[in-house]
Amino acid sequence: MRVHWLQHVPFEGLGCMAEWFLSRDHELACTRLFEESSLPSLEDFDWLVVMGGPMGVEDSSKFPWLIPEMNLIRSAIINDKRVFGVCLGAQLMAAAMDAKVSRNPHKEIGWFPVNKEKDEHTAFTEEIPKTFDAFHWHGDTFEIPEEAEHLVSSAATSNQGFCIGGSALALQFHLELRAGDANRIAEACHDDLTLGKYVQQPEEFTMKKDLFEDANKLMGRLLQTLEKV
C-alpha cells in the first residue's frame, strides 16, 4: 500500500508509525511542506497521513501551502482514500470538511485522560478504551464536521477526535510519539510551556515511558483498523 505523509515542521515526524508502516511492507513517501509546496495527486497514494505543527489552519498568509493542502485532504476524504490526521492534521481535516477551528478555552500539553464517547459505535471505537491517557500539545480545537462521528473528549477539550466512515480518522492528541519525540517538540516549542491547569512540563511528561508504550500500542491498533478498509 502506498502511504504518503505530510510533514509541516522538521521536529514532528511519524514517530512509531514509521516502523509500523515499514514492518507491513507499505511504501512510504513524504512531502516536507517546510521545504517544498508540491503536493501529491490523488493517484499517487492509497493512504494520506497529515501530521502536526505549531501553525494554525488560518495561517495561510504565512504558509500558503495550507489552502492546497486542505483541498487535497478534502478530495482524499470524499474519494474514500484512507486519511489519518494528528493534531494540526486533525484540525486541517475538520476545516477541509467545513467545520470551524478556533482557540481552545485551555491550552493542553502533557498527559491527560481521554474518554470515549458513549453513543458512537464505529470500527475505531471497538479499539478505543473507555478511558486512556494520551499525550497532548495543542491550543486550538475543532468542531465535529457534519459528516463525522464524534469519538473522544477530554476535560480540557470537548472534541478530541472524529471519524468519517471507516476510512478517515482525526485525532487531536498524539499516540505516535515516543519520549524522544516529545522532547524534540518541547525543545522547539518551549514558549508554549506557560503555566496552566492543563500544561505539564517536560520533566513531568517525558519520564512516563509506560504511557508512551501504551499509546504506541493503541496507535498500532487504530492503524490496523484503517488498513482493513
Question: How would you portray this structure in words?
Answer:
- It is a single chain.
- The chain has 229 residues and is α/β, with parallel strands linked by helices.
- The chain has one domain: Rossmann fold.
- Helix content is 28%, strand content 27%.
- It has 6 helices and 9 strands; from the N terminus they run E-H-E-E-H-E-H-E-E-E-E-E-H-H-H.
- It has a 9-stranded mixed β-sheet with strand order 2-1-3-4-9-8-7-5-6, sandwiched between helices.
- Strand 3, helix 2 and strand 4 (82-86) form a beta-alpha-beta unit.
- Helix 2 packs across helix 3 (88-96).
- The relative contact order is 0.17.
- The mean pLDDT is 96.
**Coarse shape:** globular
What is the N-to-C succession of helices and strands?
Answer: EHEEHEHEEEEEHHH
State the fourth-level CATH superfamily: Class I glutamine amidotransferase (GATase) domain
Count of DSSP H/I helices: 6
Total discrete domains: 1
Low-pLDDT stretches are none
User: What oligomeric state is this?
Assistant: single chain
Sheet/helix structural class? alpha/beta
How much of the sequence lies in strands comes to 25-35%
CATH topology: Rossmann fold
Which architecture per CATH?
Answer: 3-Layer(aba) Sandwich
Q: How many beta-strand segments?
A: 9
Query: How would you sum up the major sheet?
Result: 9 strands, mixed
- The level of helicity is 25-40%
- What Rg do the Cα atoms give? 16 Å
What is the CATH first-level class name? Alpha Beta
On the 0 to 100 scale, the average pLDDT is 96
Please list the strands of the largest sheet in the order they lie side by side. 2-1-3-4-9-8-7-5-6
